Amino acid sequence: MVATAGTPRARALSAALRDARETRGVGLRVLARQLEISHTQISHWETGHRVPGVEVVAMILAALRVPPGERERILDLARNLGEPSWLTVGISGIPQQLAGAIECERAASAIVEWSPMVVPGLLQIREYSRAILEHVDLPAVDFDTRVLVRAGRGEVLLSNDPPNFEALISEAVVHEPVGSAQVMQAQLAHLVAMAARPNVTIRVVPLRVGWHPGWSGPFVVYDFPSAPAVVHFEHYSSGAFVPVEHDVKEYRTASQRIRDVALGEVDSLDYLTKALQEWEVRL
Fold it and tell me: Which SMART domains did the record assign (predicted)?
């Protein structure tokens, strides 16, 4: 079980167990007494330092009276922890994938993201996230929660011990309207502000520079202090976390090739500032 600790799927399981308990207002010690298990052990499971077995997960979910749909989703995470890679397919898999990404972001020491079409999730403002999710078939009850979760991801970059984040974005990202001109103006202003932070680097990749590995699709590389690096691929209704060393190495090489055709940090900031001014004119 120790071997699976630190993987995206294990991180998502920890977050799911913690959320299941906290949303029902059950204290850690209360649950521990109910299950006759050390509260320290449960804490280790919820923080990802240790990984519980399927039977233990089922026992926790039963004690918390988690409804069938949510229970099955969490048990599915527990059943397949031994698989090194993690593929989610279908809109119903997106919450698991997002949970995995958020836990990776919290644990990472460094993150490199290539985003050819939209602002990276860690840099999205709430209105921009809302404009994206308006085109996803979501139940009304889940919409606001998903917006808050997506927009809240960026808080990790403002924490006391933030990861180093490098965003490589296509110039198309800053010109393609996602939401209104007001939303785009606010989003570009946020990018300019975040680019000034010491732990954030934003580099713009111009169009018409010829083919480079980034045109094969978006990707994120997570580095962790005490776990293997992971590559994350996120698409409209599917996604995958891949910790295979060969693949990680290939995407590190791809990142460098994208940097080779990107504007420098100063020129990128100048580009973002000019794009912001263009959106302000449209207001």
Answer: HTH_XRE
Which of the listed residues 43, 58, 83 is the one where a domain comes to its end? 83
Among 32, 52, 83, identify where a domain stops: 83
Structure tokens at 183: 């939303």
> Two tokens at 56?
């233990």
CATH, residue 127: 3.30.870
pLDDT tens digits, one per residue of 82-124: 766 676 654 444 567 777 888 889 889 999 999 999 999 999 9
Largest separation between any pair of C-alpha atoms in the chain: 64
169 pLDDT band, cuts 50/70/90, is very high
Tokens in use for 55? 């039977």
Concatenating the DSSP letter of every residue in 171-222 gives THHHHS-SS-HHHHHHHHHHHHHHHTSTTEEEEEE-SSS---GGGG--EEEE
d(CA 165, CA 191): 13
Are residues 101 and 41 both part of a single domain?
no
